Amino acid sequence: ENISDFSLNITDCTQVVVPEEVFFTVAAAGILENLLILIAIVRNKNLHLPMYFFICSLAISDMLGSLYKTLENIFIILCKMGYLTRHGDFEKKLDDAMDSMFILSLLGSIFSLLAIAADRYITIFYALRYHNIMTLRRALVILAVIWAFCAGSSIAIALFSYEAATVIPFTILFPLMMFFILCLYVHMFLLARSHAKKIASLPSSAAHHRTNMKGAITLTVFLGVFLCCWAPFVLHILLARFCPHNPYCACYMSIFHVNGTLIMCNAIINPMIFAFRSPELRSTFKKMFHCSR
Amino acid sequence: MSALRLISNRTSQQALANSDYTWDYEYYEYGPVSFEGLKAHKYSIVIGFWVGLAVFVIFMFFVLTLLTKTGAPHQDNAELSEKRFRMNSFVADFGRPLESERVFSHQMAEESQSLFHFCINEVDHMNKEKASQKGPSLESNTHFQEVPKSSGMFEEDLHCLTKFNIPNFVNTEQNSSLGEDDLLISEPPIIL
C-alpha cells in the first residue's frame, strides 16, 4: 500500500523520532563502556573467575544490543541517501541477520543475569563447596551452552517471527526469567535477614536500617532497570503481532524509537550496577588509564 | 523483527515525497488506522503501561524492604566495634543483664573475629596461590574444624562473604577495620 493512502487524521499518532545524535551517542557510550570492561577482565589475571566471566557475558550481550541499533541506524541513513534499495534480497537477509543479533542480545542479557544470580546463590548457599561446584571450566561450559542456545533460538525466532508460536514463547520467557531471578535474590535476602537477626542479638548499631534499605534499594534498582529498559520493547513485539490495526496499539508502537533508546541505556547502566561495584575491577581501570597516559 | 524494519523505514519514507512503499513483509502491513471515535485517550496504553510498571517496581521495593526488616528491638547508634571491645558496657547500654546473653554475645563476637581473621588470611592465601584451586579449599576445610561453631549457617555465610572473592556482594576491602566486619555480616549480600 502506498503511504499516501494513509488517512492523515489530525489526531494521528505520529512516530516519535529520537534525534540521531542522541541515538549514536548513547549507542557509542554503551559499546565503549562494555568494551572497556571486557578488556579489563581479560587483562587482569585476578579477574579470571567464574563471576567475572558471567559479567563478561552480560557485557557482550549489551554490546551486541547497542551494535545492532547503531547498524540499523546506519542502514536507515544509507537507505535515505539511496545507497541501498528497500526491497532487495540482500537487504532482507541483512535485516534478518540484524534482527537475530538483537534477539541474541536480549536472550544473552536475560541468561547472563540468570547466570550471575545463580552464581551468587551458589556462593551463598553452598559456600564451602563453591570452588568444586563452580570451577572455571564449568563456568565456560555453561556460558558456551547459554550462547549456543541463544544463537539458535535467535536465528529461529528471526526466521519465523511471523508465527505466533515464536512470539508467545519469547514474550513468556522474559517475565518467567525475571520472576526466577527475583526468587533467587529473595531467598538470598531471607538468609541475610536471618543473619542480621543473629547479629541483632549482639549489641548492634543503627546501621542495620541503613544496610537493609541499601540491599532493597540495590535489588530494586537492578531489577527495575532491566524491566524498564526491556519490557517496553517486549510489549511492542506483542502488540505488533496481535493488534497492529488497533489505534491504541498503533499509538503505543509509535514510540518505538524511544523503546530502542531505552534498550541502549540499559547497556550503559548494567556495567554500573554489576561491574563497577567490584573494587578489583575499578582498580584495574585506574591502572589502565594511568598506563595510557 | 520485521516490525522494526517497517517502522524504521517508515520514518525514512516520510522524508521522501513520492516513493512506492513496497516492502516484502506484507504480513506486517500497517493499513490506514482510523483514529476516530476513540473512547479513551489515544496514548492510554503507553500511560497505562508505564504507570503499571512504576507501581510494580515500587511494590517490589516495599516487599523487599519488609523482607529485610530485622525487627531488632534495640537499635543503638554506637559502633559495633566499640561494643566488642567493651564487654562491660553491654549490660549498661541495653539493660539486659542476663549473664548467659552476655557470654553468648561475647562468644559470637570472638568467633566472628577469629573467623574473619581466618577468612581474610584465606583470601590473601588464595590470591597468592592461584595455580591450585583445590589447595586452599582443602586447607580451609582443615582450618574450619579448629574454629568453634555456633551454627553451621553462620560460618557458611561468613565464609562465603569473604572467602570466595565476591566483591560484588560485600565490601571485602581488607584494610577495613575489624569493627566493620560484623557490619559486613549483617549487610545483605546484595551489595551489588
Task: Provide structural commentary.
The complex is a heterodimer of chains A (293) and B (192). Chain A contains ten helices and no strands. Chain A is an all-alpha fold. Chain A has a single domain (20-197, 212-284), classed as Rhodopsin 7-helix transmembrane proteins (Rhopdopsin 7-helix transmembrane proteins), CATH 1.20.1070. In chain A, helix 1 runs antiparallel to helix 2 (50-81) and helix 3 runs antiparallel to helix 5 (136-159). Chain A is globular, with a radius of gyration of 22 Å. The relative contact order of chain A is 0.13. Chain B has a domain at 36-68. In chain B, helix 5 (99-128) runs parallel beside helix 7 (152-162). The longest helix of chain B has 30 residues, at 99-128. The model of chain B is unreliable at 5-29, 71-123 and 130-192 (pLDDT under 50). At the A-B interface, helix 2, helix 3, helix 4, helix 6 and helix 7 of A face helix 1, helix 2, helix 4, helix 5 and helix 6 of B.
β-strand amount of chain A = under 5%
> Helices and strands of chain B: which structural class?
mainly alpha
Order of helices and strands of chain B: HHHHHHHH
Could you tell me the number of beta strands of chain A? 0
Q: Give the tally of β-strands of chain B.
A: 0
* Assembly type: heterodimer
The CATH superfamily of chain A appears as Rhodopsin 7-helix transmembrane proteins
Helix amount of chain A, in percent? Answer: over 70%
Low-pLDDT windows of residues of chain A: 1-8
Number of helices of chain B: 8
Radius of gyration of chain A: 22 Å
Share of helix of chain B, binned: 55-70%
**Share of β-strand residues of chain B:** under 5%
State the major sheet of chain A: none
Shape of chain B: elongated
| Unreliable stretches covering 5 or more consecutive residues of chain B | 5-29, 71-123, 130-192
How does the major sheet of chain B shape up? none
Please tell me the overall pLDDT of chain B: 51
SSE succession of chain A: HHHHHHHHHH
Number of domains of chain A: 1
GO molecular function, one term (chain A): corticotropin receptor activity
Keywords (chain A): Cell membrane, Disulfide bond, G-protein coupled receptor, Glycoprotein, Lipoprotein, Membrane, Palmitate, Receptor, Transducer, Transmembrane, Transmembrane helix, Ubl conjugation
Family (chain A): Belongs to the G-protein coupled receptor 1 family.
Pfam families (chain A): 7tm_1 (PF00001)
